[in-house]
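Quick one, probably user error.
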């Protein structure tokens, strides 16, 4: 019985392995930091055309309650349909902010709504404690 269980587990393990086990080489890898001031930089490139890089630093270094770690970088790869995908990003106190031609964008704000928003921005603040 133990032999059958072991054989069944071995069969499951063999059938679950990736079908293409060809190793993908790392063509370039650079890594500097983390430095004493919170800065760092890394980059790599692989044999299947993945390219990525990032640099980081501390914004407002030495200013209590205002220091923020910032990361700026990009990555690119070829999608299964052959399209080259490139994403650039910033991650800071405002969160992760990716940009790329393939990412969806919101439609423009209609002119009438934009005029209303502009008007509201000119009004003095109101007391909300009533």
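Nope, works fine. Designed sequence:
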């Amino acid at each position: 019985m133990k032999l059958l269980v072991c054989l069944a587990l071995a069969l499951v393990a063999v059938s679950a392995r990736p079908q293409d086990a060809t190793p993908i080489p790392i063509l370039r890898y650079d890594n500097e930091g983390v430095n004493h001031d919170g800065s760092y930089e890394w980059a790599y490139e692989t044999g299947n055309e993945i390219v990525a890089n990032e640099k980081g630093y501390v914004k407002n270094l030495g200013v209590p309650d205002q220091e923020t770690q910032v990361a700026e970088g990009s990555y690119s790869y070829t999608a299964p349909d052959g399209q080259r995908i490139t994403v650039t990003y910033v991650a800071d106190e405002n969160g992760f902010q990716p940009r790329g031609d393939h990412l969806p964008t919101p439609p423009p704000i209609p002119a009438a709504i934009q005029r209303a928003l502009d008007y509201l921005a000119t009004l003095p603040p109101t007391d909300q404690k009533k």
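The longest helix spans residues 2-16.
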